[in-house]
Design goal:
By secondary structure, the chain is mainly β. The protein contains three helices and 14 strands. A five-stranded mixed beta sheet has the order 2-9-8-4-5, covered by helices on one side. The protein has a four-stranded antiparallel beta sheet with strand order 1-3-7-6, with no helix packed on it. Strand 4 and strand 5 form a beta hairpin.
Length: 183
């Protein structure tokens, strides 16, 4: 998580926690706001660029902040749409209410966006990186075709690929191909 978000969340929690007069109840700690996250589950893996954070809060009039931004609270139920970066994300949630101590929790969500491996059969070997790089895929080419293949005119093309076309793969996956002038 970006350091500025952590600092912003800490400042928000402290600002909403309140301080000062305890109403003459010395030695009695105020009741804590109840905060429950119903979705997503901690350590969830998703493939979208956003995630809906939902849950319940008691008292129903409590204020909820998700990543430092106010969430919509209706009848004790809250929701917020959170943008996700590729990879691991930590989402902090804080709830505050007058006369109660704040509740803070965090959950981890991993954005694992997969891409579809394109069909590469017949693609000229020199154009493979142009095909795969925009998708975040790497290429590893092996020369095939045997000794006579070197003597034939033309450019080598893809004859085989792994993973297969249409497969969903993580960004950074290496696509292995066999290239030759005759397949």
């Amino acid at each position: 998580m970006r350091p500025e978000l952590l600092i912003g969340a800490a400042v928000a929690v402290l600002a909403f926690a309140g301080c000062g007069d305890d109403g003459g109840k010395r030695g009695t700690a105020p009741e804590q706001v109840r905060l429950e996250i119903s979705a997503p589950a901690d350590t969830a893996v998703v493939d979208g660029s956003t995630v809906d954070v939902r849950g319940r809060v008691t008292p129903s009039g409590a204020r909820v902040r998700v990543l430092g931004r106010l969430a919509q609270v209706t009848g004790g139920t809250f929701t917020a749409v959170v943008p996700l970066a590729e990879g691991a994300n930590v989402i902090d949630v804080a709830a505050t209410a007058r006369g109660r101590s704040a509740s803070v929790t965090a959950l981890r969500v991993t954005r694992d966006e997969r891409v579809t491996v394109p069909a590469l059969d017949g693609v000229v070997a020199g154009e493979l990186e142009d095909e795969l790089e925009p998708l975040g895929l790497r290429v590893e080419a092996e020369r095939g075709g045997g000794l006579l293949d070197e003597l034939l005119p033309g450019e080598p093309v893809v004859c085989q690929q792994e993973p297969a076309a249409g497969t969903k793969a993580q960004r950074g996956t290496t696509v292995r191909v066999v290239v030759a002038k005759t397949c």
